[in-house]
Amino acid sequence: MISPQVVNSRVRHRGAMANGFASISNGVPDEESITAPFLRLRRSTSNTTSQIAIVGSNPCPVESLDYEIMENDVFKQDWRSRSKIQIFQYTSLKWTLCFLIGIVVSLIGFFNNLAIENIAGVKFVVTSNMMLANKYLAAFLIFAAANLGLTLFACLITTLIAPETAGSGIPEVKAYLNGVDAPAIFSFRTLVIKIVGSIAAVSSSLNVGKAGPMVHTGACIAALTCQGGSEKYGLTWRWFRFFNNDRDRRDLVTCGSAAGIAAAFRAPVGGVLFALEEMASWWRSALLWRAFFSTAIVAILLRGLTDLCLSGKCGLFGTGGLIMYDVTSVNISYHLKDVPPVLLLGVIGGIAGSVYNFLLGKVLRLYNLINEKGTAYKILLACLVSIVTSCLLFGLPWFATCRPCPVDASEPCPTIGRSGNYKKFQCSPDHYNELASLFFNTNDDAIKNLFSKGTDTEFHPTSVLIFFITCFFLSIFSYGIVAPVGLFIPVIVTGASYGRLVGLLIGSSSNLNHGLFAVLGAASLLGGSMRMTVSLCVILLELTNNLLLLPLIMLVLLVSKTVADAFNGNIYDQIMSLKGFPYLETHAEPYMRQLTVSDVVSGPLRIFNGIELVANIVHVLRTTGHNGFPVVDEPPHSEAPILYGLILRSHLITLLKKKAFLLTPTPTGEDAIKHFSANDFAKQGLGTAEKIEDIELTEDEMEMYIDLHHFTNASPYTVVETMSLAKALTLFRGVGLRHLLVVPKTSERLPVVGILTRHDFMPEHILGLHPMLAKSKWKRLRFKFPLWNKIF
Amino acid sequence: MISPQVVNSRVRHRGAMANGFASISNGVPDEESITAPFLRLRRSTSNTTSQIAIVGSNPCPVESLDYEIMENDVFKQDWRSRSKIQIFQYTSLKWTLCFLIGIVVSLIGFFNNLAIENIAGVKFVVTSNMMLANKYLAAFLIFAAANLGLTLFACLITTLIAPETAGSGIPEVKAYLNGVDAPAIFSFRTLVIKIVGSIAAVSSSLNVGKAGPMVHTGACIAALTCQGGSEKYGLTWRWFRFFNNDRDRRDLVTCGSAAGIAAAFRAPVGGVLFALEEMASWWRSALLWRAFFSTAIVAILLRGLTDLCLSGKCGLFGTGGLIMYDVTSVNISYHLKDVPPVLLLGVIGGIAGSVYNFLLGKVLRLYNLINEKGTAYKILLACLVSIVTSCLLFGLPWFATCRPCPVDASEPCPTIGRSGNYKKFQCSPDHYNELASLFFNTNDDAIKNLFSKGTDTEFHPTSVLIFFITCFFLSIFSYGIVAPVGLFIPVIVTGASYGRLVGLLIGSSSNLNHGLFAVLGAASLLGGSMRMTVSLCVILLELTNNLLLLPLIMLVLLVSKTVADAFNGNIYDQIMSLKGFPYLETHAEPYMRQLTVSDVVSGPLRIFNGIELVANIVHVLRTTGHNGFPVVDEPPHSEAPILYGLILRSHLITLLKKKAFLLTPTPTGEDAIKHFSANDFAKQGLGTAEKIEDIELTEDEMEMYIDLHHFTNASPYTVVETMSLAKALTLFRGVGLRHLLVVPKTSERLPVVGILTRHDFMPEHILGLHPMLAKSKWKRLRFKFPLWNKIF
Predict the structure, then answer these.
(1) Which DSSP string do the residues of A551-569 spell out, in sequence order?
(2) Which residues of B touch A267 (CB under 8 A)?
(3) What is the mean pLDDT of residues B149-158?
(4) Is the CB of residue B96 less than 8 Å away from at least one CB of chain A?
(5) Is the peptide bond before B636 cis (omega within 30 degrees of 0)?
C-alpha cells in the first residue's frame, strides 16, 4: 500500500531533499552525533520516544494527557470568548456535573456501606448463633466458607472482567491527575467491578479497606459523567461537547476523588484537602470551590440517608457502618505533661509506618511475581489469604481468657450478634471475650470499639498487642491480592490498636483516656504510612467530631511524618513506581541542571511539511507510536524552513478519516476549516480513540495532499536545545504539557531538533543515558539500611 | 563621565555596527515598525517596559519578583545538589524558621489581644463607672476623647512613620505572593507600626478588625526572619544565605500569612486554607506541610498562653478577647424544613455582601481623593470617623427601652463593667439595655453576644436592625482611614447581627436557635464579601468549635458566594486594583488568543554583548529602568549573533561594584567566577538594593570590558514572536517568571526581539494598545447596573 517514494523518503537525508515534500527526516543529523558524546549513547539505548522509561516489575502501557489548551484555527477560542449563552451552558453544566457527582457518589457510598454491613452482618449473626448452640466447628466452617466465597467472587470478577480494578485505585487516579492515562481505569466496566468487588472483599472479613476503592469510584463517576454518559448507548448530549478535553476532565476527576473520600469518611472538608494534598498535580482556586461543592452535597445527602436508616429500615445497617466515631461528648482536657507520651506515640508511629511501607513494598513485589504466573495463581493467592485470615480471626480469640462483664458497662454485656463492645464468643454468660470484640467484628466496629471512651479496663495489653501484630501483618499481606481493596481502614485499625496499647502501657500517668490514645495512634500510623498532614488531620477531626483534639492530632501527624520521611517515601508513590507509571515530579533533580535538553532528546524525529502527502502521513502514523509531530514550512512555500507548529496524531487521523485531500500541494484558504467542527478534534470518549489501521485509503488518495496548517497548533511551547533540562521540566510540569519542541540554537539547521515528552524527564531514562550522573541525585536526608534490603 | 563613543552608540543603528561591541541597540528594527500596524501604536504609547500599566487612582511604584531559579555559572546548582551538610543546614533552618514564625506570630497575636482588651476594657470600665454615678455627659466625653486620642495616635504614626501600613495589608501580601513587591511592606518599621497602630485603632472602638493586620504582621515576621534578622544591626548568620532568594522568601511569607490568620482566630487549619485559597498564587505540597507546622505552633502556644490568663493574671484579658465562641455544648439538630430559611439567609447575605463591596469600593475612591490632599486631611478624616463612631456607639443605646432582666439568665444581669451579655448602661437596677450590649462593647464581645445560645429573647428585632445598619455603614466608612485596620471582624459582626435579625423574624417556624442564625449570617456576609469558601467554612468551624454546623455553613457559603459573584468581585481584588498592583491572573483573557507576543512587546530593547564595554553597561543602567537585559554573542566571538542569555540589573551592579574588569575584550576562563560567591549575587535584603548611582568608576575603568558570560542566566525561557499571548501568559504565570525573552521566527534578524514582563500582560496595557479587542473580554455571567455606577 505504501508507495516506493514514501519508503524511500524514510532513509533519505535532509540535505538530499529536492522536491521539498519528503519530510520524514531524522531530526538529529549524523554530524551532530559525532560531536556530542551523549548522542551515540542515546541512540543505542532507545529508538522511539514513547516506548522508553516504563519501569518497575509490572509495566503497563500508559498514555500521556494534554492539559494544555489546544490552539489551532479550529480551536482558536476557548470558552471564555464564546457567546453568553454558551458560557452559561458551560458554567451551569460544570456545576451540574459537580452536583451529579456529589449525588451519585454519596448514593454509591451509602449503598456500599449498606451492602457491606448487611452481608458481613448476616455472616456474623449466623456464626454467633451457631456458637451459642455450641456448634463451634460448624460455626468456623461457615465463617471460613463465607469469607472464602466472597473473596473468591471478588478475585474472580476482578481477574476475569476488569484486572485494572485491583488495588485501591488511588495510585491510578493520582497518576491520571499527573497526566498518565492508564488503560481502562475510567470505564463503566471498571466502575461496576470496583463497587461490587469492593463490597465482596470488605464483607469477606479480609483486613482491607473501602476508602481507596471509593476514591477510584468517585473519580470514575466523574470521568464518565463528564463524557456525557456512554457514547455506546447514544446517551450523549450536545452541551457535553465542552468537556471533551483533558483539562475539564481532570478538574472533574479531582472533584470526584474528593467526593470519594468525603463519602468514605463523611468528611467533606477532609475530602477536599485529600484531593488537594495527595491527589492533584495541578490545582486552581476554582477547583477548591467546585470540589467543596461536590463534597458538601455528599455530606448533606449521606447525613440524610443515614438518618433514614436510624429507624431500622436498612436491615443490619444503622448501628454500625459508615464510620463516625462520635467522641464529642468526651470533655477533653490535656496539659503539658501529656505532650511527651503523645510525642513518643508519634515517633514510634512514624517508625512503624515506614516499616509498614517497606514491608508492603516487598510483599507487593513478591505478589506481583506470583500474580504474573497466571489467573490460577492469582486466585490461589487470594484464597490462601482468605483462609489464613479466617483462621486467625476465629482462632486467636480462643487464646484470650474470658473476663466478667463490668458492672457499670454502658452497653449490654455480653453482646450477642453483630456489633458491640463486649462479644460473648465462647465465654460463659456474663463474661466477654476481649479479643473477639476486636477480631470477630467488621473493621468499622473494631475501630469504633478501640476509639470508644470509658472502656479503659475492657482490654488487656496482651490482647491489644496480639490484635495489633495480627492486623499489621494481615493488612500487609491482604493488599496485594487481585481485588478492589484499600489501605486506609486497615491502617486506621492497626494504628488505633497500637495507640490503645500505648495508652494501656502508660496507664494512669496520663489523664488522656484510652479511646483518645487510639485516635492518636491511628493518626500516627496514617501519618507514617500515607505521609499526609492537613488532610489526615481534618479527616480524623471530622471522623471523631471533636475539634479540641486538633492540636494533639496535628502534633502526632507532624512527628510521625517527619520520622517516617527519614526512612522511606509515601506508600502511594511506592505503588505508582511499582506499577511503572511515569509520574512527573514537581522538583527537578540536581543533575538536570547539568544537562541540556539536547542531552536527553531521543530521535529519530518525524517531521511533516505544512502541505504533506497523504501517503507520508499514513506511513509515519503506521510505523511510529508518536503522538505529536512538528510541522515545518519549507521552500517553495517559505523562504527557509520555518517551524509552523505541532500536530497531534489524533487530529491527523481525523483529517485522514474526513478525507479532506488536495490534488496538488497548494495552500487552502480559511474556508478549509468549515468542513470541520471543533468537536471533530475534541478528545474522544474513553477507550474509543480511533486507530490508523481502521482507515482505508485508495492508491489515488495516497498520492494526494493535506494542508495541515489550519489543524496545527501554531503556538507550541519551545525550548532552545541548550536550555537546562531542569528548566525545561519546570515548563513542562508547570504548564501541563504533553509535547515540548526543541529548537536549535543556531539557524543553520532544521528549525526543530527534537520533541520532549514525559518519558524524557523520567530519572530512569536520563540516568540510563548518563549513568555517571547518578551521584548527583537529590540527596534526601534519609537513613539507609542496606542490610535490610539484602535480607528481604 | 560617559564617553562620546557610548553616547554615540545609543543612536547608531544595528546595521552600522562595526566593532561588534556597540550593542546598545534597538531591538525592534525600523522596517518592522512599518510593516506591523501595532508597533507604531505601541511606540507612541509607551517608552520603557517597566513604567507601563500602573493603573488606578492611587498608583504606587512596585517591583516584580523572580520566582524562578537563577541559572548562571555561579548559581548553577540548586540546594539539592549541595553536600549533605548543606542540605541539612537548609532543611533544618527552613523548619526552624517556620517554628520561629509560629512562636513569634502567636506571641504577637496574644500581645495584641492582651493590649486591646486591656486598653478598651479600662475605657469601658471608667465610662461605666461614671454612668453608674449618673455623670452621663462626662462619661460620653471621656469615651469620645479616649477614642479620638487612640484613633489620632494610630493615624499619626501611620501617616508619619509608615504610610504603607494603612489598611489591612492582605492585598499587599497577596500581591507580593503574586510577584509584586510594593515598597517597604516588609520592613521592621512596618512591622512595629502595624502592631502598635492596629492595637490603637481597634481599642478606639472604631468598627475595624485586627485579623487583616495580623496577616500582614505574620507575613512581615516571615520576611524578616528569613532575611536572618536585620542586616543593619549585623545580626545575620551564614546559614541564612540559602534564603536570599525570592522563592524561599515567598514560601515563608505564605507560612507567615497562614500563621497570622491562625493567631487572629485561633484557627490553625483555617489559617492554612486561607493562605492557600486567598493569598497564594503558587502552591506546592511541601508548603501545605510547612504552613501547617507554623499554624500548629501558633494554635498550641496560644492555647497555653490563654490558659495562663484564666487565673486572672492578664488584667482585663481572659474573659473576653481572642474570639472563640464555644458553642460545642449546643445540641444542634436540624431538619429539611430548616433548609429554606438557611438558603434565604445565603441569598440575602450574598446580595448584602456584594453591595458591601460595591459601596466600600466607592468610599475608598472618595477617601483616596481626600487622603491625597495631604497629611492634615488624612488626620481630619480619621478624627471625623472616630467622633461619628463615638456618637453612634454612645448615642444609639439611648433609643432602646430598658428591659427587665430575665429570671433564668445564665449570667449576672445587668453586667456592670466591661464585657457581658446584659449591659446596664442608663437603665435602672435589674434592667438591661439591649442595644448597649451590642454597641457599648468591643467587637469581640458583641460577636460573642450575638453568637450566644439561650438568648433568643434578649434582643428585639428593631434593636438588632439598628445595630446591623450602623455596623454595615460604620465598617464601610472606617476601613479607608489611614491606619492599620482590617475588614474581617467588622464583616463578621455585621453578618452576625444580620443573621440574628433573620432568626428573630423567622421566629419559631425554625428550630435553629438564634445564635446559630448569627453564625450563619456571619458566614453569608463573609462569603458575599470575601468570596472564600473552604477557608471561611473551616475558620468559622474552628471559631464556633462545632463540626455539626458544617453542612449548614457550607450551604450558606456556597449560596452567598454564588449570588455575590453574579454582581461583582472579591473585595481584596478590588482593593488591589485600586492600589494599582499589576496582579497577574491565572486565566488568559480570550483576546490574548488573538494576539501574538510581538503585538504587545514594547521597545526599545537594550542588548548587551557577551563581552561588553563598562561604559555601555553604566550608560544603559543609568538611562533605563529595565531589570533584565538579553546578552548576545556577536562576531568575532561567534559566527552569527546568538542569544546567550539574560542578565539582571542587580547582577550587573554587583559586577561593576567588584570591578572585575578586563583590559581587552577577550573571553575569560572558568576561574573568573572564583572571585565571586553565590552570595554576591543573592537577592539583597529588603530595601538594601544598591543603585547604579552609588557606583563610582574612573575614566579608565569605563573603557574596560566585562565578560558577562559566567554571570548570565544561560537558560532563559523564550517564546517565538508568533506565539499566542495567552500561551506566553500561561508560561509566564505557571513558572513564575519576571522576564520572558521573545525570539524571532525567522533567523535573518537579531536573535532576540523583545522582553515580556508582567506589565505586558496587564489587560489595561494590552487594551490600551489594541482598544478594538475590548469586546472580546472575558464575559462573566454578571448582572450590570449602569444606573448605580452613575449615581455613585
Answers:
(1) HHHHHHHHHHHHHHHTT--
(2) none
(3) 96
(4) no
(5) yes
Per-residue pLDDT at B235: 52
Burial of B49 (0-12, 13-18, 19+ CB in 10 A): buried
Q: What is the pLDDT of residue B779?
A: 58
Work out the number of other CB atoms within 10 angstroms of the CB of residue B311.
Answer: 8
CA B22, B23, B24, B29 dihedral sign is: positive
| Contact B547/A at CB under 8 A | yes
Which of the 8 DSSP states describes residue A316? T
Select from A76, A269, A587 the Cβ nearest to the Cβ of B538: A269
For an interface test with A, which of B71, B342, B747 has the most A Cβ atoms less than 10 Å from its Cβ? Answer: B747
CB contact at 8 A, A317 and A120: no
Q: Which range among A518-527, A561-570, B296-305 shows the weakest confidence by mean pLDDT? A: B296-305
Q: Mutation target for A interface from B720, B731, B778, B783: give the one with most A CBs within 10 A.
A: B720
Cell of A101: 457527582
Query: Are A272 and A293 a contacting pair, CB within 8 Å?
Result: no
Q: Rounded to whole angstroms, what are the CA distances from A313 to A118, A122, A306?
A: 12, 15, 10
Three-class secondary structure of residue A423 per DSSP: strand
Closest among A455, A448, A439, A204 to A319, alpha carbons compared: A448
Which residues from chain B sit within 8 angstroms of residue A91, using beta carbons? 781
Quick one: chain A helix, strand, coil %, rounded to 5? 60, 5, 35
Cell 498532614 locates to A533
How far apart are alpha carbons A21 and A6 in whole angstroms?
10
Please give the Cα distance from A424 to A411 (Å, whole number). 13
Contact check, Cβ <8 Å, B283/A288:
no
Q: CA-to-CA distance for B326 and B517, rounded, in angstroms? A: 15
Angle between helices A84-132 and A211-226 (to 10 degrees): 150
pLDDT at A636: 77
Q: Are B436 and B336 in contact (CB under 8 A)?
A: no
Which residue do the cell numbers 449615581 mark? B791
Q: At what angle do helices B339-371 and B550-565 cross, to 10 degrees?
A: 50
> B558 and A293: CB-CB below 8 Å?
yes
With cell 555596527, the residue in question is: B17
Phi, psi of B334, deg, nearest 5: -140, 155
Please tell me if residue A719 touches chain B, with a CB cutoff of 8 Å. yes
Burial pattern B554-586, b for ≥16 Cβ within 10 A else e, equals bbbbbbbbbbbbebbbbbbbbbbbbbbbbbbee
**Residues constituting chain B:** 792
For β-strands B642-648 and B718-720, DSSP reports them as unpaired
Q: Which of B87, B288, B586 sits opposite A781 (nearest CB)?
A: B87
> How confident is the model at residue A313, as a pLDDT?
73
What is the reported pLDDT for B670? 66
Query: Locate cell 520572558: which residue?
Result: B740
Instruction: Tell me, rounded to whole angstroms, the distance of Cα B702 from its chain centroid.
Output: 43
B-interface mutation test, from A265, A544, A593, A729, most B Cβ less than 10 A away: A593
A673 DSSP β-pair partners: none
DSSP string, B240-256: GGGG-SHHHHHHHHHHH
Amino acid occupying residue A471: C
Alpha carbon distance B581, B173 (integer Å): 11
Cβ within 8 Å, pair B277-A285: yes
Strands (E), A488-573: none
Range in A433-447, A563-577, B168-182, B380-394 with the lowest mean pLDDT:
A433-447
CA A356 from chain centre, in angstroms, equals: 20
Query: How far apart are the CA of A300 and the nearest CA of chain B, in angstroms?
Result: 6
Say whether pLDDT at A36 is over 50: no
Chain A residues within 8 A of B299 when measuring between CB atoms: 550-551, 554
